[in-house]
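Final paragraph of the annual report: two paired records, presented back to back.
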Amino acid sequence: MSNYEKITTGMGEECGVFGAYDMDGGDVAPSVYYGLFALQHRGQESCGIAVTDTYGERKVHSKKGLGLVNEVFDEEALEGLKGNLGVGHVRYSTAGATKVENAMPLVLNYVKGTLAIAHNGNLTNAVELRHELEYTGAIFQTTIDSEVIAYHIARERLKTAKAEEAVRNAMQKIEGAYALVVISPRKMIGARDPFGLRPLCIGKRDNTYFLASESCAIAAVGGEFVRDVEPGEIVSFTKNGITSDKSMAISPKKQARCIFEYIYFARTDSTIDKVNVYHSRITAGKALAQSYPVEADLVVGVPDSGLVAAKGYSEESGIPYGMAFHKNSYVGRTFIKPKQSQRESSVKIKLNVIEEVVKGKRIVMVDDSIVRGTTCANIIKMLKKAGATEVHVRISSPPFLHPCYFGTDVPSNDQLIAHSHTTEEIREMIGADSLGYMEIGKLKDMVGELAYCDACFTGNYPMKVPTEDISHAFD
């Protein structure tokens, strides 16, 4: 990219996985395509679909590429993907560089046939496992930790009678966060890490079963939500029905759902582990209004994940809720901008302030997080330029103080503004009239009884983590 620079705003998302198995033999590629479309918010860097026919030659057909789902797949591409069992993936790079080899699903041909695998999450022991495999002759095609999982499943499959047993044996070796969808010639398998860090759920439409990162993707294909895959559970779908193995499960008290799914990642219309995302964001906004009341004329949210929290703030405070921004929906998370116009804020490409709404008003602006601070500062500048007299910032997460090792692209400490600055210093740097972060003690109100991981705020990791940043260890 010689004349252009790649701009990523805010925080990196995760990935999304989607699997479909039509027991009646119909083609599933269109369903996988629409499922991935509904999960596009989880990753805009690359995507892919792999399908196989459980009745015919059992060959895996796959296509993947860099870009959005509708950029990589057209009608012709989907026509070529014939098969009643399929898996798809949308990717945001948390480990491994942006190149097409790192796109998923990964397709492996080995002695027992073919495996296709899609993974959301990050392994904490990927480096050791990869080195171990390399010293026994393994050759890697990618720089992503998902290939380490695929190798282990394939190896274990040589010693086991069933593919799901191979998945369980691999789970005993891998550590970290993962939601997996694996297709073998005659079955679809879903697995979730014992902590439940990454979400995965089951859906059904007539005689087709689905596995998806979020319930919104099941709704998008006209399916009915059945249940969440439980933390540590392996579910297997064959023509004989569904089997479940919970031998890897741990006590519910030790589980650790990623709290950021509820604050930011998940789509507002999803429900994860029986907790509705819309409701959890309303709760967060109300908590902010209780902790940081202020005299103001209007509450606004930064699209998209700040909007519902802003509604909660408005309901609790009694200050009217307004729409201050127009969002350009046709811009992905990452885009390029000419170097000459670097003075121009990249935020303006995505967001425009509606001057009529904010002029002459004291504004409460609710957003989900402050990572580096630059985006927030630009938005405040835009509001004040449009005539807002005061901008009071409320953030529906506590300050980021620690890196995430579980598949969320929270940057290293030196890039986290809260790591080296006080709240008052950050307020001054972003140009806000006041600044209030979510109180750590109030996070639990968002998820009720669920045990969750808040290590990016507290440093209390649910498991042993690497002493160094592993996100680009293989690049």
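The closing record of the year follows.
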Amino acid sequence: MLETLAAMEQPASLLAIAAAVGLSKAGAYRVLRTLQDEGYVDHAGRQGYRIGSRSLALASLVGPRPALLQRARPVLFRLAAMAQATATMHLRSCEHRVLVLGTEQVTEPQKKRVHIGERAPLTSGCSGRVILAHLPVDEADAVVAQHTFTNSRAKLERELDIIRADGYALSFSENHLSLNGIGAALLDLDTGYPLGSIAIAGPDDRLSEGTLRTLARPLIAACDGLAPHLTALLGPKSSARRESLDVTIQDMVAAARG
């Protein structure tokens, strides 16, 4: 199913995918739903389905880096070197964010903090919450309702308001113990829709709240600079681009099989 979808213009409709793989509409939906739940496929509403962020992360392990990762690598390297910390890029996959690329400036090699394919809810950590904060209200509300308890919902909603005002999110020992971080969103140029995020993280004894806030401006500038390239690859018109993800991942699948 993934190989077929990767070869199609995306988003692709359920009927088109079912016909391409030789399944009934109901059978294709069940497979796609399972892939969507695991983050390998994203549902684009009435437009259909497209390759998801987790597929991209997996593809980055078995083949040449996709075009967007090639664009992002030097950006992350500069951020990591400036902060003497870890810089990572995350893409949205339904109610989660997926780590697709990272670079580290650490003195202890045994403390590797970049794990390609790592997945976490958008409600957890700066890299997820900064995406969540920029989602349309109805989408954000649905994610918040699914991943939080009633008594913590109001607190998270207040935090999302702060993130929207500041333009960045902070986290303190959330997804990883003793690691603090700051994240900014990668936004579609035309719609302002969040496609992903970039985060800087490091030990809490070096990256205090004050230090993290000094990184906000260069981090946001880096996101603004990378966003046009990411929009071309993942935005609503990405299926018309020569470097779109469907072509990239199709090439990777062929390379992996060969």
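Strands lie at 41-43, 49-51, 86-93, 96-104, 119-121, 169-172, 179-187, 194-203. This concludes the annual technical report; the extension proposal builds directly on these records.
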